[in-house]
Amino acid sequence: MAPALVVLLVFWLVPLVLVVAFSLFHWDYGTNPQFVGTQQYHIVFSDPLFGQAVVTTVLFAAIVVAVGTAFSLLVAVVLYGEVQARGLFRSLVFLPYVMPMVATSTIWLWMFQPGSGVVDRLMHAVGLPGQVAWLNSSTLALAALCVYTIWYGFGFTTLLFTAGLTAIPSELLNAGLVDGAGAWQRFRYLVWPLLTPTTLFVVVVNTISAFQAFTQIYALTRGGPVNATTTLTYYIYETAFTYFHFGAASASAVVLFVFVVVLTATQFLVSRRYVFYDEATT
Amino acid sequence: MRAGRRRGASRVVSYAVLVVAALFAVFPIWWIASTSLESPSRAYSFPAALVPQWTGSNYAAAWRQGPWGRFLLNSLGIGFATTGFVLVTGVAAAYAIVFLPSRWTRAAFPLVLATMMVPFYAILVPDYLIVRDLGWLNTYISQVVPFAASGFAIFLLVQFMRGFPRALRDAARMDGAGELRFLWSVVVPNLVPALVTVGVYTLLQSWNAFLWPLIVTTSSGVQPIQVGLANFLSTANGTNWTVLAAAAAITAAPMLLLYVLAQRKVVESVSRTGLKG
After folding, report:
1. Which of A110, A225, A271, B35 has its CA 20 to 30 A from that of A242?
2. Is residue B61 in some structural domain?
């Protein structure tokens, strides 16, 4: 017990207390911290880049979660049906998730090159404009990051959905079949309601990890062009380790922590109240 | 008859969805391999570049331009050390919580669970300062010790151990086995699936670690391979895609190998750890 507790205390719990304390000081690395109290939060909130980073984070998370969840639900439902080579498909879609992110970001960087990259080549081949500056335009760079992040994570969420689906009793689906329900009706009235706990779980897990995306942003865009892809996590990193404003970075980190706690708490509360729970799925 | 045709149509749609999903997932990984095996000029001629040429020169060039052997050793060492520590501290802590309950373990367990909710990025600044004050900047220790115990690993192992029949413990006691003996000869052998799950997951996480080593290390002597690749990417090699792809392939190869050899275990491990929330 003791060694584990020491590590968790020193590197996880004490820092959590410290980050709240630091957030109340005006502190640039190498200078003496000055107590400013909650005024720090006024300063951080009035930094336009902070506001922009929050908006970017929410937008990024919303797109990645909505598209990623829908896509992986579709793949999971299809995998759950009568198909051959289920195991093969499952391990193929899961592959991106086990590859190191810097390596796969490198290859997507090459794929997104204007003109010579494979994305532009494919677009050109089907008659779309062929010279798109994916990573140099502010809207497209965020879109490119979303594509990468969905690519990286959808195999994982497919797996979570598959686990949720296998927990649905097959007698129920068979009963639906006997009653003459079509594929869509069975999905809409049987699978979808029974799957709500899994869906909710996937949405929360995905949102939390989208809020913490860093590696792909560093490798693909460095938060640019002109801060267009600077999310909250990237903002914290830059504030702390490029500009060395430790106090301001700590205040932003507290905001990130609050976001994550609220998300987790929401999942907990909503799941208690509105979600269909079956003993097999809890 | 009509039902049959409809069924056939829905089957076609099903396979179409799966093939699109699989191509989307696999194509970029295929593209790493084929780009890294192309001659630089041919890498730009599009449909032709889809078929790899088995040119080894990019790997030779990449290997010459960076200390990849060192990076690989660093990452393997950090990965296995972290995994070993997580398993040992996890088993010990879970054992204390399940089999030796006391006031202390009852107070500690909620704290352990609380760490699962802390996003690491939120505590980056204090952790950096703690590591600096310990004099650990630019060392292996700074990349292992903060992750040497995991709230999630303890949680998972506690769940497993709670499933143990009490009678087993009592029988071991009757036979005069001490705590360590019971732990080593009864608990651990029955815990292998859980240990593999935790181990695979920790190894993957450690291999992918990026932001933390980026901050706490500066010399290639102790840097892990992912940071090495990111630096390689941001220096002059920025547009030499065939060499970059070769370097990316080198950093991904060990995980690809692990996945090919133990694909089932990896999928199981990560899906089980998906229960983390």
Report:
1. A110
2. no
* Residue in B closest to A12 by C-alpha: B115
B positions 162-201 inside 8 Å of A (CB) = none
Say if residue B158 is in the same domain as residue B48.
no
Subunit contact A118:B31, Cβ cutoff 8 A: yes
Give phi and psi for A245, each to the nearest 5.
-90, 85
Residue B46 lies in domain: 2-55
Per-residue pLDDT averaged across B10-31, rounded?
90
Matching residue, tokens 């590197």: A11
In chain A the domains, ranked by start, together with CATH numbers, are 56-98+137-244+277-282 (1.10.3720.10)
**Number of domains present in the structure of chain B:** 2
**Euclidean distance between the first and the last CA atom of chain B, given in angstroms as a whole number:** 48
Report the residue from B88, B154, B263 with minimal CB separation from A91. B263
Mean pLDDT of A147-167: 90
CB contact under 8 A, A83 and B14: yes
Mark yes or no for CB contact B17/A254 under 8 Å: no
Picking from A169-183, A210-224, A229-243, B262-276, which range would have the lowest pLDDT averaged per residue? Answer: B262-276
Residues of B in contact with A96 (CB under 8 A): 25, 28-29
Q: What is the pLDDT of residue A282?
A: 36
Closest CA to B222 of B115, B143, B275: B143
Check the CA dihedral A124-A128-A134-A137 and report its sign.
positive
Residues of chain A with Cβ-Cβ distance to B154 below 8 Å are 4
pTM: 0.89
User: How large is the average pLDDT for residues B249-255?
Assistant: 91
Give domain status of residue B135, yes or no.
Answer: yes
Same domain, B43 and B157: no
* Amino acid at residue number B247: A
Average pLDDT over residues B173-188: 82
User: Do B81 and B50 belong together in one domain?
Assistant: no
